[in-house]
Design a protein that fits this description.
This protein has 4 helices and 3 strands, in the order E-H-H-E-E-H-H.
């Protein structure tokens, strides 16, 4: 997980990295800001808030579901079979977990 004060990728950067619509990332970031999980520093970026609030499991699942829906739409549009899309998700997930473990910290990895 990201730590307090960590800078998160820009909307454009994360959307490109996940191959999803920028509006989807923006909606997620806005919701996380509403919940005081993220804090926007105008002209500097978006950071993990120092508040100790945690996101309920249902909200985390909803947030991930929304992002995955965008990825699924793209996969269907590009005619990527579900099996291949699942393999791609698993590969990315495992890569991120591995990189996080190797650095001894949690958060989004840089590619």
């Amino acid at each position: 997980m990201l730590k307090e004060g960590d800078k998160v990728p820009s909307v454009r950067e994360l959307a490109a990295r996940l191959a999803i619509n920028q509006n989807t990332v923006l909606k997620v970031y806005n919701e996380l800001c509403r919940q005081n999980v993220l804090k926007i520093e105008r002209g500097d970026g978006t950071y993990v808030s120092s508040s100790k609030q945690t996101i309920p499991v249902a909200e985390r699942r909803k947030t991930v579901s929304n992002v995955l829906r965008e990825a699924a739409i793209l996969a269907v549009q590009l005619e990527v079979p579900i099996e291949q899309a699942g393999e791609l998700l698993q590969k990315e997930y495992e890569s991120i977990v591995s990189q996080r473990a190797g650095r001894g910290k949690t958060g989004l990895s840089e590619k």
